[in-house]
Amino acid sequence: MSNSNLLDGKAVVVTGAGGGIGRDIALAMAARGARVVVNDIGASLSGEGNDAGPAQQVVEAIRAAGGEAVASTDSVSEAASANAVIQTALDHFGRIDGVVNNAGILRDRFFHKMSVDEWDAVLRVHLYGAFYMSRAAAPHFKAQDGGAFVHMTSTSGLIGNLGQANYSAAKLGVAALSKSIALDMQRFNVRSNCIAPFAWSRMTGSVPADSEEEKQRVERFKQMTPAKIAPLAVALVGDATADVSGQIFAVRNNEIFLISQPRPVRSVHNSDGWTPETVLSQALPALRASFHHLDKSADVFCWDPI
């Protein structure tokens, strides 16, 4: 393992760690001294199936490099099984210091065609999963006066994307959840931050690419390996970032961004109050110049990865 002791003595759970971004985060955590619970149910992107293999393979890779790790195949989408993931850390390592909420599935569909099941499945893994995992760890963080959450959000939610209403809603919800955790638990020295990752993985590999523009974007995505996300995740779990909480970052190849959070842009005032007519004749015309465009993530991050 690396000589760096950045995370020595810490126990960290990484969900969805059987492959892609989660795998590289788990390996990087272990390389910096953390003992890692590698959580992955071994399911397909649509959430089907159960295979202990992916998690166990990552555990074996960590152990082969001299680190400590244990596999967990419990689902994050139910409260009881999420508690079991945290309990795995307590049983094997005696503590829990960091939780990386990375597990995810996709069921992309244009909104007017999206089924209730497609909506519910994605919300349960991403948003409910982040809540269940965080809630399970929170009492332990409070008792030991410290801990760190790292949640994976997405520019699909922060900015927008086509055919991903379920995923976008969940990921913007994760950002709000993270901020609330940061506010509620700051008195206990608990931090909560988000990362919006740009990386080519099994999940992004399923994003539809019908137009030439979308195909070109996919080719750019392939340059952005999951390993590029791991350094920031490691840093956010370590004690050196004790003063970093409630933030939203993005990682895109070799770039790290701090993402803005919603704030008032412009206001109009009418001392007589508003009527629908004056809203139409005064308020909306005054505000229109500051309206946000119907941007997609690719419209905002439109340059090639650096």
TrEMBL record:
Transmembrane segments: none annotated. InterPro entries: KR_dom, NAD(P)-bd_dom_sf, Peroxisomal_Beta-Oxidation, Sc_DH/Rdtase_CS, SDR_fam. Residues 10-206 form the Ketoreductase domain. It holds the Pfam family adh_short. It comes from the Bacteria. Belongs to the short-chain dehydrogenases/reductases (SDR) family. This is SDR family NAD(P)-dependent oxidoreductase.
